UniProtKB/TrEMBL annotation:
Residues 6-185 form the Guanylate kinase-like domain. It is found in: Cytoplasm. It comes from Cellulomonas uda. Belongs to the guanylate kinase family. Keywords: ATP-binding, Cytoplasm, Kinase, Nucleotide-binding, Transferase. The gene is gmk. This is Guanylate kinase. ATP binds at residues 13-20. Its EC number is 2.7.4.8. SUPFAM superfamilies: P-loop containing nucleoside triphosphate hydrolases. InterPro entries: GK/Ca_channel_bsu (IPR008145), Guanylate_kin-like_dom (IPR008144), Guanylate_kinase (IPR017665), Guanylate_kinase_CS (IPR020590), P-loop_NTPase (IPR027417). Signal peptide: none annotated. It comes from the Bacteria. PROSITE patterns: GUANYLATE_KINASE_1 (PS00856), GUANYLATE_KINASE_2 (PS50052).
Amino acid sequence: MTTTPARLTVLAGPTAVGKGTVSADVRARYPQVWLSVSATTRAPRPGEVDGVHYHFVSAEEFDRMVDDGELLEWAVVHGRNRYGTPRGPVQERLAAGVPTLLEIDLQGARQVRETMPDARFVFLAPPSFDELVRRLVGRGTEDAEERERRLATARVELAAESEFDHVVVNDDVTRATDELVRVMGVVPA
Ligand code: 5GP
């Protein structure tokens, strides 16, 4: 059951904690949740589809979206590419009573806390720092310099846990997803 308007949920957490995997699991098993599609200036990875995983835009198009106030929040992530949440689709879904999930970085979560303080803020935490490092290296899609950059970001991001309303430990994807949707109020607690 949903209320109108629905509340927004923001899922954040350190690099490689599995935010993308958990949000993909939400998409697969909880179609009643709408996942925001971010705009990004980064290039697509193999298998990523424009308009599904991200809106892949040029730096100029991203500038235009910022200038025109089209983004609810945006940030430079890992000191490299820009990522942002298109505002219009989020507002439309919330107004229609659709439970809405943003999977964004910590800087973005802080901006949403300023503009939409009634949102729920959920921190996805690794079982341990060592496990986080193992996942970060194991993914193998980034070069050594990029991994080191992401690890440095992760150390800072882990310290932010206390800023969040709820902490979900990603010890098991299915379990973590189920806990997230209970926190969202999509399924009974
Ligand atoms: P990736 O490049 O691996 O898909 O994502 C890198 C990081 O960007 C992840 O931590 C992800 O949460 C973050 N991210 C994705 N979309 C957005 C967005 O719209 N806004 C912000 N602030 N971060 C985002």
